[in-house]
Specification:
TIM Barrel, alpha/beta, Bifunctional diguanylate cyclase/phosphodiesterase, EAL_sf, about 250 residues, Cyclic-di-GMP_PDE-like, binds ligand C2E, globular, binds magnesium ion, EAL_dom
Length: about 250
């Protein structure tokens, strides 16, 4: 996958500020255009079908990076990887993930796949079969940009979703705008009631973090902590494993 690179952005525990996960974010280093953000090439990759090899490469790279960090003695954290709904339409998707996990000695629960809902995906047979298989394996599922897309509440339980990520447009409004704050606190409370992990995206200011802490949001991510960064910088944020290695 020439020209593609992955950056890693930490997701931190709101109370302790310890890093509990890393989200991988893809970049394309174009020979003449420079760094191209995913918003500019993922839709094209989805149209052309290139998203299948790109997506597989991304999951594999993320899992290999996780294995490298474990080998260096760092405690395992969750590795979040964005996937496109197109990937879930591929009948072999779950099987490929299973093979990658085996190759990289990953516990399935270390991998969290982030899905951005733009359509009612849970009505498609292949998509459902892949999601069910992933859940059976123990892979974690996360709904990205929650509150903006096709957010049906029914599938959260139906698909046994582990994590919801509150879209950053709502966080941007916290705590001053009534609307953004109400949506944010409602999603947090929904997460509590359904036993789901809740992550706030795009946290840039201390007052937002304070609001999230008061409302009991579990995790946060954003420029207030760190921007997405290369693996060799991200490693500085990881904690040493206290497990004895044999
Ligand atoms: P996302 O999954 O919601 O990722 C969060 C985006 O917000 C990232 O943009 C990140 O750089 C940015 N961000 C992080 N903290 C802050 C903050 O405090 N303030 C603001 N304003 N932005 C923040 P990025 O890297 O450009 O990615 C955009 C989208 O592209 C992602 O949204 C995700 O849906 C998609 N994407 C990224 N990597 C991949 C990938 O490997 N595969 C697929 N299928 N999609 C990807
Ligand atoms: Mg994401
Ligand atoms: Mg996304
Ligand atoms: Mg998002």
């Amino acid at each position: 996958m020439d020209g593609f690179v992955l950056l890693y952005q930490p997701i931190v525990d709101v109370r302790t500020k310890a890093v509990s996960a890393m989200e991988t974010l893809i970049r394309w280093h174009h020979p003449t255009e420079g760094v191209v953000p995913p918003g500019d090439f993922i839709p094209l990759a989805e149209e052309t079908g290139l998203i299948i090899p790109i997506g597989e490469w991304t999951i594999q790279q993320a899992c290999r990076q996780h294995e490298r960090w474990r080998r260096q003695g760092f405690a395992p954290i969750r590795m979040a990887v964005n996937i496109s709904v197109k990937e879930l339409h591929h009948p072999q998707f779950a099987a490929r993930v299973e093979a990658i996990l085996a190759e990289t000695n990953m516990k399935p629960s270390w991998l969290e796949l982030e899905i951005t809902e733009t359509i009612a995906i849970y009505q498609e047979t292949t998509v459902l079969a892949n999601l069910r298989r992933l859940k059976e394996m123990g892979v974690r599922l996360s709904i990205d940009d929650f509150g903006t897309g096709y957010s049906s509440l029914a599938y959260l339980k139906q698909l046994n979703i582990d994590t919801v990520k509150i879209d950053r447009t709502f966080i941007a409004d916290c705590p001053h705008s009534h609307y953004g704050s109400i949506i944010t606190s409602t999603i947090i409370s929904l997460g509590h009631h359904l036993g789901m992990n809740v992550i706030a995206e795009g946290v840039e200011r201390e007052e937002q973090l304070e609001y999230l802490r008061k409302k009991g949001c579990h995790e946060a991510q954003g420029y207030l902590f760190r921007p997405p960064m290369p693996a060799d910088e991200a490693v500085g944020l990881l904690a040493r494993s206290i497990e004895r290695r044999t």
